[in-house]
User: Which sequence fits this backbone?
């Protein structure tokens, strides 16, 4: 049963991966938008396991400063990464809008701290531009840039978010 | 295809199980060559593997086992006496069989370039055809043959006909033979049926007359005396596997992943149980004496008992007898002693001791290495032993037993033992230790030197050991299992190695300690003791802080320094030291608090955070928070690196002295603007700096982020978070343990006051109050005159 479920999830995930990379079959991709610092970012909706309000976490020594630590999600110990620190956004406090987005990356779950959610987005894949050449450093974690109305939304490459290993 | 795969897997599982037993049986057989039961057992293994192998088209395996079967069959019929030389060949073929099976397991086929069975097959053929060694074996076994002749004569004849001549038969003859055998079988079956019928009839008829039954049975059993040996034999052969079958039916093979999953779920349950108990304790405090508490108590304790039982039960399903590992050692000792020309007797005790499967899988290699080491370095050659007045045959004793929550595996030899001074000078020579270290070293620590990388005491490098790799790997492997190694040795009398490992890897006992505000779990197996000391107890040796504890001098390291945790707590009069031990080395770890002992479930930190120095994993505690588990071996390494810093420097620079009211910051927490103003008016004239919060949540965040607050005046009735909860939350932090909290409220009942004290309020002032009273209370709590 759980195997079946896993298969279904996997298929879905593959689909989303396909969605974000090639756009032959589907023109619309679904994303969840959120704010970190002053910028709006988005990740594929199907890679999101859940979104929770901030809960307590435990610090882990010898990690980079954007790794806040680990937290307990129903019996699983997940790393918690502060995207605000990772992206060098100004450090705001945890106000009422802050959320943890729990994302599944290569079968591993991880939590990411964001300033606030915006909305679920449906974006035509044809309107997504490749990452600009200037964003050298960030290029690795950016899938593309999307425009919606007047907003510019950076779509994040999920599996690169956890790539920068600590030493 | 899948079916075939399944059969193949079953075959492999069965084959490996049989082979495991086989090694031990073979060694036993060598010392007891006439044991027919053993021979039969061994023969059956070869036979079964041959049979299944041919069905699975494993030609090479079939060919090998076929020849083994020939030799064993001869031995079984006493035509061949097993000599050590023949045994060598048989053992060689068993090894080859193992190699082939492993190859099949890995690649699915027995075709490989690495294994050439031909030389062995030739040797086996030679033995079974009676060449070379045949004369010796024939003469020596002659008297036995005679003895048994009466019994087995006919059987041998028949067997020879039925089993050995097939190869030479023409197809026609073969068919005729099959026909004959079939008829024979049918005849037997018929007889059996008749006998059975008779017996049934008898049983029906003779139920009241018990005496008749055995008689009748006797009759039915002996219808044809001539054939008895044969049929008996056949029945015997069948009976044994049949018996086995019936025991097999008592067990189910389960995929290990399923058990792992089950174990994880139990882990969750244990955590929930801990949580439930914690909640119950809170509820008990609050509603003491209420009727429903009894009922709740019953439920909580029964859940807790069942969970513990369940945990043990599931742990047991993963348990295997250590005999599974021990089984292969008689063979190892035998080969080694032959190779090295030593005489060694292996005594195995406690093979029924059970250990978690994952540990069983990991412990084999280290044990193997230590046993080799004992035989190679420990046991002297026979001449030397005789010269020393020791028995010619050396003894290696392998023992396993339970000791508390641990399993101890002991490897003891009566060989030459180790001389701590020689070990020290060797280590000095190789630059592993400094002269100073050598002087300080106790004998036990000196013995532990053999586990250092690059250390080898063997004068010459043998095939067996002494390449300088190995013992250090043994130690690492044992430590990976959260285990310890202890060594004791007397020069001339032998050495004892003790490996202590936990029963299971998933759930351990841990000591919870606090480094500043953060909690860590230290596996209890590595905690030797905890002591409370004062700063004066710390002495300095070369600028490094040490603790003199009884006769020992322990290096002292502050846990917060190791993990680079920011120091926010003031220094207490007392320090807590956790004495950690891995092997012979010890370190005193200064912590800011001892929380207690708890059973914890080990969880991995996941791919992303794995491999952090000093952290072995994490656990989730009763309150749902994550606590990191310390990797003691790595922590001690870190501690040694950190030890350079003096402990005295770990104390926070004492806060600047506060004498006048102007130096103090007071937080006023009240949702009513008027009340805040009244309080402010009462105390402001004294010169305090005043901050305000309108509810508990706001106050908490101010206190947490602004450590300058010196006292708080707290209203009870507030939105979002009331005063009780606020006090509770504040007291959760070590650094706010002594922060004066003064309740200022219109709640005047006695139970309100009691509640206030319970949650950690220092004072309880009821409205209305006079400004003088308030300032006096405040001054008293700030120790202002």
Assistant:
């Amino acid at each position: 049963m759980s195997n079946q479920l896993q298969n279904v999830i996997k298929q879905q995930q593959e689909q989303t991966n396909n969605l974000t990379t090639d756009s032959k079959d589907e023109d619309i991709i679904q994303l969840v938008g959120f704010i970190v610092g002053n910028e709006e970012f988005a990740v594929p909706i199907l890679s999101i396991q859940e979104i929770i309000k901030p809960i307590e976490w435990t610090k882990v020594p010898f990690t980079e400063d954007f790794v806040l630590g680990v937290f307990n999600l129903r019996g699983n110990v997940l790393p918690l990464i502060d995207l605000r620190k990772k992206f060098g956004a100004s450090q705001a406090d945890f106000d009422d809008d802050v959320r943890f987005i729990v994302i599944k990356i290569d079968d591993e779950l991880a939590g990411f701290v964001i300033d606030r959610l915006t909305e679920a987005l449906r974006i035509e894949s044809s309107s997504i531009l490749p990452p600009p050449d200037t964003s050298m450093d960030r290029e690795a974690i950016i899938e593309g840039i999307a425009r919606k109305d007047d907003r510019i939304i950076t779509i994040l490459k999920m599996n690169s978010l956890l790539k920068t290993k600590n030493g | 295809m899948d079916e075939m795969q399944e059969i193949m897997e079953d075959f492999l599982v069965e084959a490996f199980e049989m082979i495991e037993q086989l090694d031990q049986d073979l060694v036993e057989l060598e010392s007891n060559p006439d044991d027919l039961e053993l021979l039969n057992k061994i023969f059956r293994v070869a036979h079964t593997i041959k049979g299944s192998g041919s069905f699975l088209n494993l030609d090479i395996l079939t060919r090998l086992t076929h020849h083994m079967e020939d030799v064993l069959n001869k031995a079984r019929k006493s035509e061949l006496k097993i000599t050590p030389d023949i045994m060598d060949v048989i053992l060689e073929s068993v090894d080859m069989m193992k190699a082939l099976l492993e190859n099949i397991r890995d690649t699915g086929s027995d075709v490989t370039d690495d294994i050439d069975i031909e030389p062995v097959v030739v040797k086996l053929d030679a033995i079974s055809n009676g060449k070379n060694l045949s004369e010796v074996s024939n003469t020596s076994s002659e008297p036995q043959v005679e003895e048994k002749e009466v019994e087995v004569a006919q059987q041998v004849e028949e067997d020879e006909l039925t089993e050995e001549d097939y190869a030479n038969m023409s197809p026609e003859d073969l068919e005729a033979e099959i026909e004959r055998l079939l008829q024979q079988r049918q005849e037997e079956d018929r007889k059996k049926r008749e006998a059975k019928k008779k017996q049934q009839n008898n049983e029906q008829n003779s139920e009241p007359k018990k005496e008749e039954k055995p008689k009748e049975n006797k009759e039915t059993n002996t219808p044809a005396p001539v054939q008895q040996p044969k049929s008996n034999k056949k029945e015997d052969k069948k009976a044994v596997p049949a018996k086995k079958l019936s025991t097999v039916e008592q067990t189910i093979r389960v995929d290990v992943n399923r058990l792992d999953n089950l174990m994880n779920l139990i882990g969750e349950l244990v955590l929930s149980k801990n949580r439930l108990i914690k909640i119950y304790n809170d509820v008990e405090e609050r509603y003491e004496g209420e009727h429903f508490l009894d009922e709740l108590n019953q439920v909580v304790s029964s859940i807790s008992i069942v969970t513990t039982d369940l945990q043990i039960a599931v742990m047991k399903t993963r348990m295997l007898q250590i005999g599974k590992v021990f089984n292969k050692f008689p063979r190892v000792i035998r080969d080694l002693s032959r190779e090295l020309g030593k005489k060694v007797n292996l005594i195995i005790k406690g093979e029924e001791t059970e250990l978690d499967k994952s540990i069983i899988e990991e412990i084999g290699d280290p044990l193997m290495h230590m046993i080799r080491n004992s035989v190679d370095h420990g046991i002297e050659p026979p001449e030397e032993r005789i010269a020393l007045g020791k028995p010619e045959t050396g003894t290696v004793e392998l023992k396993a037993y339970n000791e508390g929550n641990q399993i101890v595996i002991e490897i003891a030899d009566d060989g030459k033992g180790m001389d701590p001074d020689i070990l020290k000078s060797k280590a000095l020579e190789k630059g592993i230790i400094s002269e100073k270290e050598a002087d300080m070293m106790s004998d036990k620590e000196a013995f532990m030197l053999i586990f250092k990388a690059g250390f080898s005491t063997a004068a010459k490098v043998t095939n067996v050991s002494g390449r300088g790799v190995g013992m250090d790997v043994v130690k690492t492997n044992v430590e990976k299992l959260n285990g310890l190694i202890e060594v004791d040795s007397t020069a001339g009398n032998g050495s004892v190695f003790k490996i202590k490992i936990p029963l299971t890897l998933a759930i351990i006992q841990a000591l919870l300690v606090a480094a500043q505000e953060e909690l860590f779990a230290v596996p209890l197996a590595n905690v030797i003791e905890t002591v409370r000391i004062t700063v004066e107890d710390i002495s300095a040796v070369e600028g490094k802080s040490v603790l003199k504890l009884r006769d020992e001098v322990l290096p002292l390291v502050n846990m917060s320094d190791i993990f680079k945790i920011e120091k926010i707590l003031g220094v207490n009069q007392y320090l807590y030291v956790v004495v950690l031990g891995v092997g012979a080395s010890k370190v005193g770890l200064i912590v800011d608090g001892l929380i207690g002992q708890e059973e914890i479930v080990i969880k991995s930190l996941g791919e992303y955070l794995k491999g952090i120095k000093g952290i072995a994993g994490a656990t989730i505690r009763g309150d749902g928070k994550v606590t990191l588990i310390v990797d003691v071996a790595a922590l001690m390494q870190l501690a040694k690196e950190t030890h350079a810093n003096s402990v005295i420097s770990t104390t926070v620079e004492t806060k600047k002295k506060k004498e006048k009211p102007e130096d103090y910051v007071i937080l006023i927490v009240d949702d009513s603007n008027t009340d805040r103003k009244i309080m402010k008016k009462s105390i402001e004239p004294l010169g305090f700096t005043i901050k305000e919060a309108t509810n508990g949540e706001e106050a908490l965040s101010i206190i947490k982020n602004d450590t300058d607050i010196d006292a708080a005046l707290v209203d009870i009735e507030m939105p979002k978070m009331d005063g009780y909860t606020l006090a509770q939350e504040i007291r959760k932090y070590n650094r706010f343990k002594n922060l004066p909290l003064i309740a200022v409220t219109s709640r005047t009942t006695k139970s309100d006051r009691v509640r206030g004290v319970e949650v950690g309020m220092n004072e309880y002032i009821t409205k209305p109050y006079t400004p003088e009273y308030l300032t006096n209370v405040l001054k008293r709590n700030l120790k202002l005159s």
Observations:
- Chain A has a mean pLDDT of 80.
- The domain at 2-161 of chain A is CATH 2.40.50.180 (OB fold (Dihydrolipoamide Acetyltransferase, E2P)).
